[in-house]
């Protein structure tokens, strides 16, 4: 049983006209076994929350705290957070030419586990996970994210999620840009990840579409850098119907 | 790269499009070509072709240091069908071999080496011979006290297919000319691997003559040495030639590695593709890349592209990168160049670290990846492992050094954090 606690989180980015506050006091707790959907209009700070949790250098935490089982996440480097069990599936995975997918996956697995995976089972694990995500075998020898289509990048993120097997996954608009088939494949991957019952998921999305395939336990509506409303899955139905219009005033 | 040398938006009507912008007359075709040493003035630091070179570290090789030393040994490992001969200048055959690429020395060190090298190492791949393994010439310098001159002529006869690797190691003061001649339809890969000891000074001129429909791959790989300056000139004997010019360099603290290229598109329907990649680490590591391409009026239907990328790993290193393109006919398939110099890409490091990979390991992955593309393009499996291992060794040297700060790319004197790509005609 693990807990990811976000308390009073304020985050700024540097702009030409000085620091600009994006997150204005976020409180959110995710326990293992729970799936939380974070929904909100563009510019509401959803992705900032995701990148801040992962420790992207562009974002400065000005106050608040993030605790993983009581440990101070904000004091950790980016790689330490990943090794502590946090995973961020990125909206825009970065191309790294000359580094093959297979080499990257093995290096990451070794780093996260603290020891190299056993070769025989590892090869089988990778192949199995790739098959389940309908990823072609040749993919393993391609350069990391280089020249991948949008759908390939997202499936590759979920491949890493399955193989690295973190405690908590933050999925940053993993559904955006996917056609319905790819969306199903990705959602199935996330559901496999949570099926063990001891995983926490923070699913960040603009649309309710993915929630037909991944059932959230809680829904948080994000507006103007903080949580404007919280509820159960029924809140997503309301958003499906009415969109974010009701929250327009809150984004000031 | 200085911004005045970058050509933007060349189009068909941009005849001779100011590639000599602001009197930047550095192209090799403006240079005196002569076998007579005295026809070449002693280079000075203010000369365009020498302005990046630390003249004080040349040990007067460009002036009058005798090149009569022989403190080096040469070993050759060749396929038995490849003919390897050492021809004395006094030998009647010498005159026919030396100069067979059409090269005439374009600067004083090259002319001096031509005059003073008393033998020519001639490597000939006979017509239609296809070798399975590369011909490897190992030159091992035994000391940097006395200077020496060398001359190599590699001839790929018609329809032959082969790889020649010239390895350099040890300590030396060395000035040489390498001629590469390819006849009709030959396929030849030549790799010059410069893995010198720290005190070596090497001035080298390569001239490549591309035959009709010949396919030439030429690679210069520089790791060691105090000062290594390699000039590569290339022209075509007939239409249909295809040249790929590759370069890999890794400069450490205090090293000066300079690569100068001049591709002379003097025949129609030929191609050239240039890719040079370098990494730099440590105080006063300095690399220079000059890529000159001339498309003469008769070179219709050609296609050329050149790309130089430099990765600055620590503060205090400097990469200069100057592409020059002179187009004298608009009737071409394409011409372009790009140059980019920068530090690590923060987003790449973040992505890797977000998967638990430490900062050091992430940097190693990125640099390995940066060079892997090039090592694969060189495509000689017999040296690929060695090149990868040497890159690893270089990375280990830099491990203790602090990574380049975010201002590094901006303050790097090369000021090249931009890229130019020419429109295709």
UniProtKB/TrEMBL annotation, chain A:
GO terms for molecular function: ATP binding; ATP hydrolysis activity. InterPro entries: AAA+_ATPase, ABC_transporter-like_ATP-bd, FeS-cluster_ATPase_SufC, P-loop_NTPase. It comes from the Bacteria. Residues 6-249 form the ABC transporter domain. Keywords: ATP-binding, Nucleotide-binding. Signal peptide: none annotated. Belongs to the ABC transporter superfamily. Ycf16 family. This is Fe-S cluster assembly ATPase SufC.
Automatic annotation (TrEMBL), chain B:
It comes from the Bacteria. Residues 1-25, 406-425 are annotated as: Disordered. GO terms for biological process: iron-sulfur cluster assembly. Residues 144-370 form the SUF system FeS cluster assembly SufBD core domain. InterPro entries: Fe-S_cluster_assembly_SufBD, SUF_FeS_clus_asmbl_SufBD_core, SUF_FeS_clus_asmbl_SufBD_sf, SUF_FeS_clus_asmbl_SufD. Residues 415-425 have a biased composition (Basic and acidic residues). Belongs to the iron-sulfur cluster assembly SufBD family. This is Fe-S cluster assembly protein SufD. It comes from Jiangella asiatica. The lineage of its organism: Bacteria, Bacillati, Actinomycetota, Actinomycetes, Jiangellales.
């Amino acid at each position: 049983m693990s807990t990811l606690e976000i308390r009073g989180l304020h985050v700024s980015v540097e702009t030409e006209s000085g620091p600009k506050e994006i997150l204005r006091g976020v409180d959110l707790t995710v326990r293992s076994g729970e799936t939380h959907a974070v929904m909100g209009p563009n510019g509401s700070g959803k992705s900032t929350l995701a990148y801040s949790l992962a420790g992207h250098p562009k974002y400065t935490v000005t106050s608040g705290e993030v605790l993983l089982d009581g440990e101070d996440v904000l004091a950790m480097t980016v790689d330490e957070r990943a090794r502590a069990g946090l995973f961020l599936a990125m909206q825009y995975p970065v191309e790294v030419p000359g580094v093959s997918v297979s080499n990257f996956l093995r290096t990451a697995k070794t780093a996260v586990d603290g020891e190299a995976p056993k070769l025989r089972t590892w090869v089988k694990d990778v192949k199995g996970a790739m098959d389940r995500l309908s990823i072609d075998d040749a993919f393993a020898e391609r350069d990391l994210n280089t020249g991948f289509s949008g759908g390939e990048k997202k499936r590759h993120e979920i491949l890493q999620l399955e193989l690295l097997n973190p405690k908590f996954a933050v999925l940053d608009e993993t559904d955006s840009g996917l056609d319905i088939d790819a969306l199903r494949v990705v959602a199935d991957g996330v559901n496999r990840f949570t099926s063990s019952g001891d995983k926490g998921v923070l699913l960040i999305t603009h649309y309710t579409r993915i929630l037909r395939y991944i059932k959230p336990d809680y829904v948080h509506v994000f507006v103007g850098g903080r949580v404007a409303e919280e509820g159960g899955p029924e809140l997503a139905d309301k958003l499906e119907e009415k969109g974010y219009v009701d929250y327009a005033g809150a984004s000031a | 790269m200085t911004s005045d040398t970058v050509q933007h938006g060349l189009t068909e009507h941009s005849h001779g499009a100011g590639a000599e912008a602001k009197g930047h007359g550095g192209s090799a075709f403006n240079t005196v070509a002569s076998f007579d040493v005295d026809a070449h003035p002693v280079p000075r630091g203010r000369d365009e072709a020498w302005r990046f070179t630390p003249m004080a570290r040349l040990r007067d090789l460009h002036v009058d240091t005798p090149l009569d030393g022989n403190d080096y040994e040469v070993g050759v490992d060749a396929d038995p069908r490849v003919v390897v001969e050492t021809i004395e200048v006094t030998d009647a055959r010498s005159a026919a071999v030396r100069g067979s690429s059409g090269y005439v020395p374009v600067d004083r060190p090259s002319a001096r080496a031509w005059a003073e090298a008393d033998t020519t190492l001639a490597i000939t791949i006979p017509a239609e011979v296809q070798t399975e393994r590369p011909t490897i010439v190992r030159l091992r310098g035994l000391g940097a006290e006395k200077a020496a001159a060398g001359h190599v002529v590699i001839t790929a006869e018609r329809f032959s297919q082969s790889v020649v690797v010239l390895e350099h190691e040890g300590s030396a003061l060395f000035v040489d000319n390498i001629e590469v001649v390819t006849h009709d339809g030959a396929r030849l890969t030549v790799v010059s691997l410069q893995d010198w000891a720290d005190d070596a000074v090497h001035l080298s001129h390569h001239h490549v003559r591309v035959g009709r429909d010949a396919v030439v791959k030429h690679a210069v790989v520089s790791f060691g040495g105090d000062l290594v300056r390699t000039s590569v000139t290339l022209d075509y004997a007939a239409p249909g030639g295809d040249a790929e010019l590759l370069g890999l360099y890794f400069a450490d603290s205090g090293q000066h590695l300079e690569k100068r290229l001049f591709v002379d598109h003097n025949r129609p329907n030929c191609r050239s593709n240039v890719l040079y990649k370098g990494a730099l680490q440590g105080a006063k590591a300095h690399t220079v890349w000059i890529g000159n391409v001339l498309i003469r009026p008769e070179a219709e239907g050609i296609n050329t592209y050149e790309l130089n990328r430099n990765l600055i790993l620590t503060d205090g290193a400097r990469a200069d990168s100057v592409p020059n393109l002179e187009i004298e006919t608009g009737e071409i398939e394409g011409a372009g160049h790009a140059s980019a110099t920068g530090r690590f890409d923060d987003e790449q490091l973040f992505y890797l670290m977000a998967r638990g990979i430490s900062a050091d390991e992430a940097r190693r992955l990125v640099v390995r990846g940066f060079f892997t593309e090039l090592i694969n393009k060189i495509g000689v499996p017999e040296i690929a492992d060695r090149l990868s291992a040497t890159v690893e060794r270089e990375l280990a040297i830099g491990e203790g050094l602090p990574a380049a700060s975010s201002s590094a790319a901006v303050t790097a004197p090369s000021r090249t954090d931009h890229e130019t790509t020419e429109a295709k005609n």
